[in-house]
Amino acid sequence: MHLQGPRVLAGMMTACLLLVASFFSPAATMNITAEFVPSMAHPENNTFTNTTPQSGYCVLYPGQCVAYGTFSINMGGITASLATTGITANSEPRMGIYFKMPGAVRNITVVNQQTGTPVTLGFRVNAFSADYLTRTSWTLADHSRWNGGSFVNAPAPCGVSGVGSYNKSHYQFMWKWPASDAACYKIATVDMTGEPYFLNENSIGYELITPDPLKMASGIYTGSLSLTVGPGGDIDFGDNFTASDSNLTLNFTLTVNHELKLTPAAGAQMVALQPCPAGKICSEDEGDANWERWMVSRVTPQLTGRSAFTLSSSGSFTVFMDCAERVGNECALTSDNSGQRVPMRVSVNLPDNVIDSQTGSTVTGRPLLIGKSEGQNYFTAKTYGADKPGSIDFLVRQKDVDIMLATRPDTYRGAVTVIFDPNIY
Predict the structure, then answer these.
(1) Rounded to whole angstroms, what are the CA distances from 30 to 58, 77, 119, 204?
(2) In which band, very low, low, confident or very high, does the pLDDT at 194 lie, cut at 50, 70 and 90?
(3) Which of 228, 256, 284 marks a domain boundary?
(4) Beta-bridge mates of residue 310
(5) Are residue 133 and residue 281 in the same domain, yes or no?
């Protein structure tokens, strides 16, 4: 509303009031949600669970929907009313009872609200239900008014999923939809003035083709799909019915709740490196025996150590390290006596349910990098694993042990922080 104040014209006071009215029909909306949470009972599970509250036909007739594997949700309140005086016998399909639904898969991009990472979701309508109402009473015998029999007999290419109910003023039905943007229609065998005049309680069944949640980062992913409603639209009630809305917006929310929990073994946060043959981890007693052999043979050993842990994981993550001291691209051990530094190789062994995201291979002896490096050491749990064993291995090479022995007796120390990060991007 805009008010134009008084002004003087030819000695007279006038007031001009300008009214602006705006009329609009808000688009109908549907909210579809699904969630993934790892389960010990089903560690191989890589599918989302539908968390959309069920509404529409399947609430009234759950037994039919269970039998036919159908789930329904109201079409955002969309209805359709008769646009003409009625339906004539043997009319063109679009002038009778005519429905076209988006049965072919639509791809929707849903985006992680924290990381901005997009993934693709597929959606298609696999069923349509409605309650058609009449102005006047009619009987069950009037089902003969339709070519092919009553509304329980869905016309090709649609399929039958059962009749819900009927009485003298309404008929509630559901048709299963093929995997295409097909039109399904009923042809009247007699003229029906004003019958049926209203399509109410419209709902759809749908199918979601979801990405593999084990390859998705934790978080909430959102996206939307806009469907046109009306003649020639994604949802089409033909030319004899007028829909209450011209657009239907579907809002999708996928929630991924991965688990990534690292539990160090008792005493694993302090590691004493021991002389040991290549490829082995030696105990303290074995290390003492190997030092005695070195005293005789003077063949320099390598030093190795291991920090064990258990890992619970269901998604993707990266592993990298931070060092108190470093030599080149590796963490370092530093001499108490001289401050001399020697490099130490740090590698990770991951549980057998975890694979390299790029190669698909299991992860054994993978060298760790200092800092988070894009595209490096990305891992994925191919199945959910709870408290599965893994380890961090440490190695000082033979030539570097020679340097350490030159300052004996001495103690070399170092600190390494290993980070398991689910935020790989």
Answers:
(1) 16, 9, 20, 11
(2) low
(3) 256
(4) 263, 389
(5) no
DSSP 246: S
219 with 273, same domain?
no
Count other Cβ atoms within 10 Å, centred on residue 175.
23
Query: Do 142 and 266 belong together in one domain?
Result: no
81, 135 in Cβ contact below 8 A? Answer: no
Q: Is the pLDDT of residue 425 over 90?
A: no
Residue numbers of the domain that contains 178: 28-256
pLDDT per residue as tens digits for the range 230-280: 999 999 999 999 999 999 999 999 999 998 999 999 999 999 999 998 889
User: Mind listing the pLDDT tens digit for each residue in 201-232?
Assistant: 999 999 999 998 988 888 999 999 999 999 99
CA trace torsion 86, 90, 92, 93 (10° rounding): 80
Write b or e for each residue in 32-41: b if 16 or more Cβ atoms lie within 10 A of its Cβ, otherwise e: bbbebebeee
Strands 316-323 and 416-421: what pairing?
antiparallel
- Distance, in Å, from the CA atom of 216 to the CA atom of 220, rounded to the nearest integer, reads 10
Whether 299 maps to a domain, the answer reads yes
- Residues 278 and 252 grouped into a single domain: no
Owner of token pair 């389960």: 39
Q: Which of 392, 385, 313 is nearest to 349 (CA)?
A: 392
> Do 252 and 265 share a domain, yes or no?
no
Burial, 96: exposed, middle or buried (Cβ in 10 Å; 0-12, 13-18, 19+)? buried
